[in-house]
Amino acid sequence: MSEAEPLSPCVAVCVLEPASGYCRGCFRTIDEISRWLLLAREEKRRILAALPARQAKG
């Protein structure tokens, strides 16, 4: 049985914060957003794991 593909954290609030470089909605960088469909599962999981800390920094 294969593992499920991690879902995109996009919430359709697509505005990049100039100071942090993170999207206000999903807290990913533009590079992470643009490459999401091409990334390996492990890389997607690594990004998803980093999002709560990014969000906490606000």
Concise summary:
This protein has about 60 residues and is mainly α. It is about 40% helix and about 0% strand. The protein has one domain (about 15-58).
Give structural notes.
The structure is a single chain. With 58 residues, the chain is mainly alpha-helical. The protein has one domain. The chain has 2 helices and no strands. It is globular and about 40 Å long. The termini are far apart.
Counting helices, strands and paired strands, the structural category is mainly alpha
Average of pLDDT: 95
Distance between the termini: 38 Å
Sheet having the most strands = none
How much β-strand is present in the residues? under 5%
Stretches where pLDDT is under 50 for at least 5 consecutive residues are none
**DSSP strand count:** 0
Helix content: 25-40%
Overall domain count: 1
Number of helices: 2
Estimate the global geometry from the Cα principal axes: globular
The secondary-structure element order is HH
Q: How large is the radius of gyration?
A: 12 Å
